[in-house]
Automatic annotation (TrEMBL), chain A:
Organism whose genome encodes this protein: Formivibrio citricus
Cellular compartment(s): Cytoplasm
Gene name per UniProt: metXS
Residue ranges the record marks as coiled coil: none
Domain AB hydrolase-1 span(s) in chain numbering: 48-356
Molecular-function GO terms, alphabetical: homoserine O-acetyltransferase activity; homoserine O-succinyltransferase activity
Protein name: Homoserine O-succinyltransferase
Catalytic residues as annotated in Swiss-Prot or TrEMBL: S154, D319, H352
Family indicated by similarity: Belongs to the AB hydrolase superfamily. MetX family.
Annotated binding of substrate, by residue: R224, D353
Keywords: Acyltransferase, Amino-acid biosynthesis, Cytoplasm, Methionine biosynthesis, Transferase
Automatic annotation (TrEMBL), chain B:
Lineage, highest ranks first: Bacteria, Pseudomonadati, Pseudomonadota, Betaproteobacteria, Neisseriales
Organism: Formivibrio citricus
Listed name of the protein: Methionine biosynthesis protein MetW
Stored Pfam families: MetW
Matches recorded under CDD domains: AdoMet_MTases
Gene3D superfamilies: Vaccinia Virus protein VP39
Superkingdom: Bacteria
Length: 379, 195
């Protein structure tokens, strides 16, 4: 086998959609843009396309670098590239920034053509099903009728699942990783605390902070710190930080003392300069509202009855934010609906974040499954 | 495709075409792959070992990574024609539980196990040592097997659980044993259902 490589230097592209889209919340957006990247080559019959759906803080920069000298790579670079599990020698891979995002696609920080000012509080809430519609339009514009696979972790997995219900004939395989069929009360509660941190930041100005020249950085920072705790496992955190003190002794104050405090503050600070607070609010609401069984008397297997896709569901043992039992609910619904499904429950220390990590068993399952897809479409 | 292991081939022979099969402890997925090719069977495997899960996924087998000891709650009652448990039951804790679960989710159960009543096992015990043989290749101190039984013991348990034998087969080195099966067969296969 050839050594896995990077997709190399990549460039983002932009697609403009002038056909209005009516969103689930009742609002219509007359026009919007989506930024996306592609890796690999679309084959002649356009059957080898894979869509990568991003999670809460993700974007379209999934693999590769923007310049040879860049240190940072795309967020799933360990998974996607020549010779990697999602092999760009075989597949045409698309990553996009979802509608409402803050990395180039139309979102709350974009200029509203009606007012000439950023949308801010006027930007509508967007649901997972709305994203799927915009992604379908992007696929149309690229001439892709049916995806070989739609893949996502966490909130991205919800999009993959939604695709198989909204457009059953357009998805051959859905890979739903570290996800859930809907959030639990506890999970919504975490999201609401994160939102409250932002909403009560004095710099938030009801979401129109752009025109006030402020940024609700404190709120966003707290939201991220809280989120980050829930993405790690107790064991993983204990192993990495334990009770380590930065200076080796107690200082009897509120400055950074424990390593974990330093780590979380650093993560929060970094995130608050890179991410838009309104987008964070919007993404967490999309998570909360997601429940495809809602239109089917609460029965997920009924919701999945029409799907023609085959599924791979993956969870991680120490993920408590999207625990294995939630993935097993998806598996059970698929089994009850008599669909093709495989399920792997990967041993990992890394909690919810495990879906982004390199792990031999996890990558082994992904590689084997994608290999099979490649063989299937070559037939 | 390479030939199926003899005991798996005998299981395959019991399974009707186009049926739904659940293979518990499906290993590398050979039985399900063969049933899919030869008999157009819709199958799912259950396997705890992630490397074997990877192998199954690579073969395009539906496989659910799960511990059989925690039951079959993921599977709906009556959703399978056959539920297979091959060379696994002797290593399980809750035997009665898994047998009941097999006939909850499926109509017919198929269990294979090393027959402790095989004469070589009896002979080694008679000589005062725990048996080590082709179907029981472990020493007493490193064996994963915790529940040995003979063909006669297993039949008796089925009766106690309100289940009945539909067919049984005893093999030695892949060949059928017709004469004195509980003595001359090292591997037992039982197909059973509800009374």
């Amino acid at each position: 086998m050839t050594q896995p490589q990077s997709v190399g230097v990549v460039t983002a592209q932009k697609a403009v959609f002038d056909q209005p889209i009516s969103l689930a919340c009742g609002t219509t957006l007359p026009r919007y843009e989506l930024v996306y990247e592609t890796y690999g080559q679309l084959n002649a019959d356009k059957s080898n396309a894979i869509l990568i759906c991003h999670a809460l803080s993700g974007n379209h920069h999934v693999a590769g670098k923007y310049a040879e000298t860049d240190k940072a790579t795309g967020w799933w670079d360990n998974m996607i590239g020549p010779g990697k599990p999602i092999d760009t020698n075989r597949f045409f891979v698309i990553g996009l920034n979802n509608l409402g995002g803050c990395h180039g696609s139309t979102g709350p920080s974009s200029i509203d053509p009606e007012t000439g000012k950023p949308y801010g509080s006027r930007f509508p809430l967007v649901l997972v099903r709305d994203w799927v519609e915009t992604q379908a339009r992007l696929a149309d514009s690229l001439g892709i009728d049916r995806f070989a696979a739609i893949i996502g972790g966490s909130l991205g997995g919800m999009q993959a699942l939604r695709w198989t219900i909204s457009h059953p004939q357009r998805v051959r395989h859905a890979l739903v990783i570290a996800s859930a069929p809907k959030l639990t009360a506890q999970n919504i509660a975490f999201n609401d605390v994160a939102r409250q941190a932002i909403l009560t930041d004095p710099e938030f100005h009801g979401g129109d902070y752009y025109e006030h020249g402020t940024v609700p950085r404190r709120g966003l920072r707290l939201a991220r710190m809280l989120g980050h705790i829930t993405y790690l496992s107790d064991d993983g955190m204990g192993e990495k930080f334990g009770r380590l003190l930065r200076s080796g002794e107690y200082k009897y104050g509120f400055d950074v003392e424990f390593e974990i405090e330093s780590y979380l503050r650093y993560q929060g600070d970094k995130f608050s300069t890179l991410f838009d607070a309104n987008t964070y609010l919007l993404m967490t609401k999309a998570l909360d509202y997601f429940d495809p069984s809602r239109d089917y008397e609460g029965d997920l297997s009924k919701a999945l009855a029409q799907t023609a896709a085959k599924f791979l569901v993956v969870s991680f043992t120490t993920d408590w934010r999207f625990s294995p039992s939630r993935s097993r609910e998806i598996v059970k619904a698929l089994l009850d609906a008599r669909k093709d499904v495989s399920y792997a429950e990967i041993e990992s220390q890394h909690g919810h974040d495990a879906f982004l990590m390199e792990d031999p068993a996890y990558h082994g399952v992904m590689r084997a499954y994608l290999n099979r897809i490649a063989e299937e479409i070559a037939r | 495709m390479s030939a199926l292991r003899a005991d798996l081939q005998y299981i395959a022979d019991w399974i009707k075409p186009a049926s739904r099969v659940l293979d518990l402890g499906c290993g590398d997925g050979d039985l399900l792959a063969s049933l899919r090719e030869e008999k157009a069977v819709t199958g799912y495997g259950v396997e705890i070992d992630v490397d074997k899960v990877v192998t199954c996924v690579g073969k395009g087998i539906n496989v659910i990574q799960s511990d059989l000891e925690s039951g079959l709650a993921t599977f709906e009652s009556g959703s399978f024609d056959y539920v297979v448990l091959s060379l696994t039951i002797q290593a399980m804790h809750n035997i009665e539980g898994i047998l009941a679960e097999m006939l909850r989710v499926g109509r017919t159960g198929i269990v294979t196990f090393p027959n402790f009543g095989y004469w070589e096992n009896r002979w080694q015990l008679l000589l005062g040592r725990m048996p080590v043989s082709e179907t029981i290749p472990y020493e007493w101190y490193n064996t994963p097997n915790i529940h040995f039984c003979t063909l006669a013991d297993f039949d008796q348990l089925l009766g106690k659980l309100g289940m009945q034998i539909e067919d049984q087969q005893v093999l030695h080195q892949g060949e059928k044993v017709e004469f004195l099966p509980n003595l001359l067969g090292s591997l037992a296969m039982v197909r059973f259902g509800r009374i």
